[in-house]
Amino acid sequence: MARSTHKHHSSSTTKLVFLISCAGLLGAALIVDFLWASSSYSTAAAPYLSAASKWALQKSGIEVVPNVTLADITDKRKDVKDRAERTRERYLPATYADLPAPELPWEEMPPAPVPRLDGAAIQIKNLLYVFAGYGTLDYVHSHVDVYNFSTNTWGERFDMPKGMGHSHLGVATDGRYIYVVSGQYGPQCRGPTALTFVLDTETKTWRGMPPLPSPRYAPATQLWRGRLHVMGGSKENRHTPGLEHWSIAVEDGKALEQQWKTEIPIPRGGPHRACVVVNDRLLVIGGQEGDFMAKPGSPIFKCSRRLEVVYADAYMLDDEMKWKVLPPMPKPNSHIECSWVIVNNSIIIAGGTTEKHPVNKRMILVGEVFQFHLDSLTWSVIGKLPFRVKTTLTGFWEGWLYFTSGQRDRGADNPQPRKVIGDMWRTRLSL
Ligand SMILES: *[C@@H]1O[C@H](CO)[C@@H](O)[C@H](O)[C@H]1NC(C)=O
Ligand SMILES: *[C@@H]1O[C@H](CO)[C@@H](O)[C@H](O)[C@H]1NC(C)=O
Ligand SMILES: *[C@@H]1O[C@H](CO)[C@@H](O)[C@H](O)[C@H]1NC(C)=O
Fold first, then answer.
1. How far apart are CA 403 and CA 425, in angstroms?
2. Which ligand 2 atom is the nearest neighbour of the CA of 146?
3. Is 399 in the pocket of ligand 3 (CB under 6 A)?
4. pTM surpassing 0.85?
5. From the CB of 155, is ligand 2 less than 6 Å away?
6. Which CATH topology does 107-428 take?
7. Where are the domains of the chain?
8. What confidence tens digit (pLDDT) does each residue in 348-397 have?
9. InterPro entries per the record (predicted)?
10. Measured from the CB, is residue 150 less than 6 Å from ligand 2?
11. Residue 410: closest CA among 380, 389, 396
12. Contact 112/124 with Cβ under 8 angstroms?
């Protein structure tokens, strides 16, 4: 598997060649005003991936966990590059990034009351709280829907507070209180808010918190050792990756400090990553640099596509409070901030987006379920989703892996994003 998993990278260096040769054809289509369906896009990107990775690693003075050496990582990247060169001439089908994966028997459950893209979710016991999200590019939700795993029904619905972001939120829970940090305020590619809130799930009441020092889109967010940690994400323009990392002491839904404290910056910035605390360590997995931005001068902040680099990187913080590099995901993966669950000392991640197609530049969704084994620090691909889908909202209850919402593909042969969904599915996991 290890070999085939790098297939997706295969023409990272073809990009430049391709972009130069077809620059004329693409012409004015450099900025494409369409978030939902991916389209051709702009900037000459080629050396960015490896340069950015190298830069990230050098800059952060990263430490390396035992048995995962920096040399391993560097070698892999070199390997990827070589292969990219070898396959430059080869035609790549639209579905080239799919990894071999076993079929899983998926069962369709009651769909969410509304479709949602870039929403957020938190599971507390048998309840999945599903927040916000785009219904369409021009309409965002301002409420929470709750799914009951015991009855397999959608039940409660309640409003979010005024001023809370509608997408790209950072969320975390201690089992009763749900912290909702920053995010985008409004539809299309509007600006972010730094406002931060806490929901008491027992009383269904909201409270304010000190706002984040600067607003972020889809920052990695987790509770760890009594502090709410927020890092990465995109900066105010929605595109520039943030490296900053802040934390604030919290207890029972209240901030114990007036201000956020600056923590060690994350080695690589950007939004849409899984952020997981497990075995008293904080892990940040996958994500991307760059995102759609508001078209300059557009009164509705119309989204326009920009360069994005999706990555597979995984990093970890432990007692030493220094970032350590973990083995990367089997392929670059982003839009997974609420797409993970912890099961049997492993992290399960469902769906996402990977690097764009090297030839046609279309956005490519991910249809696999990944498992990161926390004992051996290894990845495997454990199955296929019923379709490729990004920003899934996942839960795990009594042996069942659930996912709902997101944006699914155009069909088995076409991994580009299309329909925003509210579907709920489950499959019995046997790890
Ligand atoms: C890590 O390296 C040590 C020493 O080389 C070895 O004994 C151990 O089995 C390795 N662990 C894994 C998980 O590969
Ligand atoms: C979820 O379903 C269980 C089983 O019927 C029920 O006891 C519980 O009250 C439900 N929770 C909510 C919040 O509706
Ligand atoms: C987790 O491990 C337990 C004990 O080995 C096993 O019974 C259970 O089936 C595992 N869960 C899953 C989802 O595989």
1. 6
2. 13
3. yes
4. no
5. yes
6. Neuraminidase (2.120.10)
7. 4-86, 107-428
8. 999 999 999 999 999 999 999 999 999 999 999 999 999 999 999 999 99
9. Kelch-typ_b-propeller (IPR015915), Kelch_1 (IPR006652), Kelch_repeat-containing (IPR053256)
10. yes
11. 389
12. no
